[in-house]
Each structure stands twice: as C-alpha cells, then as structure tokens.
Amino acid sequence: MEWVDVDAVLFDLDGVLTPTAEVHMRAWKELFTSVLESLPDDSGADRSPYTDQDYFRHVDGRPRYEGVEAFLRSRGIDLPHGTPDDPPEAQTVCGLGNRKNVVFNELLDAEGIEAYPGSVRVLDDLAGRGTEVAVVTSSRNGPHVLRTSGLADRFEVVVDGGVAAEKGLRGKPEPDTYAYAAELLGVPVERCAVVEDAESGVRAGAAGGFGLVVGVDRGVGADVLREAGADVVVTDLAELLDGQTG
What we know:
It holds the Pfam family Hydrolase. This protein has 11 helices and 6 strands. It has helices at 20-38, 52-59, 64-74, 93-111, 117-129, 142-149, 161-167, 176-185, 199-207, 222-228, 239-242, and strands at 8-11, 132-136, 158-159, 192-196, 212-216, 232-234. Helix 1 (20-38) packs across helix 4, helix 2 (52-59) packs across helix 3 and helix 3 (64-74) packs across helix 4. It is globular.
C-alpha cells in the first residue's frame, strides 16, 4: 500500500507530531538518576548511570508503569508495584511513575511545546484529502500535549493511556490501542497507516495487520524500526510528501 492510498492515519504523539519525546526523556532521566543515586552501595543492583539507551530499550513507547518496571528489572531493582493512586513520594513502581509525570508536566508547563513543522504539513495535506486521523499514545498526558501544541482541534479521536486503562486495552507493542482507534474511525485496519517513532509502537502496527507502518527515526535507529516491521522509515514526516521515503 502507498501513503496516498490509505483511508486513515493513526499517529503516535510524542516524537511523531511533537518533540515531547525529548521532554519525556529528560523527565525519565531525572527520575531514574535520583533512584540510582539513592541506592546503597551494597544493594546488589546495577547502579551505573542512566543513559538514553536505557530510555530506548526499556521505556520508549510503553505505558508509564510498564516502563518503570522494565527499567528497574534491567538493573536488578525490586520494588512493590503499588497502585495508580500512590503519591509521587512512594517507593513503588506506581509512585515512581507518578513522580515522573509530575516532572514531565512541570517541564511542559514551563517551556511549552510546538509541533514539528513537517508533521503539521502532513496533517494539512491529509485534511485537504479528507483522510481520517487519530492520535494513539501510551501517555496519559496526550490531551495536555495536544492543547499545548495547538493540535487539539485536529483530532476527534484520541486513544491515550487513560482510555487504554478504562477499556482494558493492552499497551504497545500489542496492537490493541491502534485497532481501537481504527474502530472508532470506522476504518478497517488494512486501510489504515500507523506512524510511530518507537520500536514498540512499530511492532504494534506490524502485529495488527495495518496497511502501512511508517517509522519515524528520531534516534532509535532506522534499522531497528525496519526490523520491528516498518514498511517505510523517514526522519521527518514531510518526506512522505516530498517523495524521499526509504
């Protein structure tokens, strides 16, 4: 299937439409650096510094608490899971996830966010062709990011982490959230394109039988995205309009 043939495009948000992935990365780094520094020397855990590769391997694209669990597991750190109501100070998986969310929103409110110009060009082109669009994000901050970036009025369908929890949908790399967005739009998955910058999100698109999976390489690596199932990989969505896809 070619880009121009799809009836609907399902976009991830952070790193695809907006550079909020960078804000998320900073918030995660602040959180996990503090966690590692608080561990005693005799904890037996891997206390080596948190890096961007930790983000891409364990956190990128996953629901927040799953990302916390994956990173802690990689370092041999065992904490109780807790509940989503845990305060940010709690030493639980959910508490750490909630603490990261506080940091993220503080950064977003202080600095704001603007959509990628190339992504806006694509949204304008799709609107002109009457193609349906939706946002599918693991983050519960999706509506906040869309409002802050000025994109909220472009999307009637937004499937975020809160919707996924309410509907009992499995997170990426499972295809459930993307399939649910296609269902809300009334478009068969084989007529939809999925646009993702995370390996887990690309795997979700490939697993769900979607007509086209576009990988956006914002740092994870083009080869990684292709191996995960991307049909096309770009570094900027405007390449889809300019015929520079690869």
